[in-house]
Fold Zinc-dependent peptidase.
Amino acid sequence: MAFFLVLLLALAFLLWQIAHPLLRSMRRARLRRQPFPQAWRRILRRRVPLVARLPADQQLRLKGLIQVFLAEKPIIGCGGLRVTDEMRVSIAAQACLPLLGATRDYYPGLRQVLLYPGAFVVDRPFNAAGGVVQEQRRALAGESWAQGQVILSWNDVLQGGAVADDGRNVVVHEFAHQLDQVKGQANGAPPQPSRQDQARWTTVLQAAFERLQAQLAAGQPTLLDPYGATDPAEFFAVASEHFFEQGAALQDAEPALYAELARYYRVDTAAWSSSAKR
């Protein structure tokens, strides 16, 4: 009797393993087909003007991504913050930009987004003089954890979304880290389709990273935010901000880097401003 019970449970688990992806896919397709709420459209116009620069077909796809994201990823207020639809839609719109072109899952490792009213304080260890490890308190605008959380400051989300072409977007930055963290710790090399793609990515991004460091050391002006020179993981996240907000400028300044990001994200952001309907 116990043997048949175990066999029945194993069969049920196998059927669930087979059916679950199909049911999830059907549910997501149903969510994408639902009419996009008019109130949400107004939020996008007011809070995320970058959306208006997208071609019409990509705007439609982004809205479908937003609907699935908000159905699956809870956004939880912290520090006494009450989360509103304005906050949820603003975050989802920017978080889904990196999913716009490529066929990727909806950040499968992400369990929740934690939202603070403003910059949040964290304690981080650092190596002091003499090799002594000490705690350093820092105020952050955002943080991505491989353990399934993205933490954001609403004030910084607002600022990042308000200007569509300044190359600064904390949501895109942290969700680029999420893509990088699919395999574990972020290192600036998110998974690629093949070894050849991975090798090319490493070569191109490492060269651009070292070029940014050299330009800053020489006191030269740079398009890319200096924070990108911190390490390869931050370079990828910073480059992603500029890719989505300043595609044409990035293509001019760093054509090889732009081409690599365009291959990875499967969108040509340099063409957005010229093709979008105002």
In short: The mean pLDDT is 89. Residues 21-125+135-275 form a domain with the Collagenase (Catalytic Domain) fold (CATH 3.40.390.10).
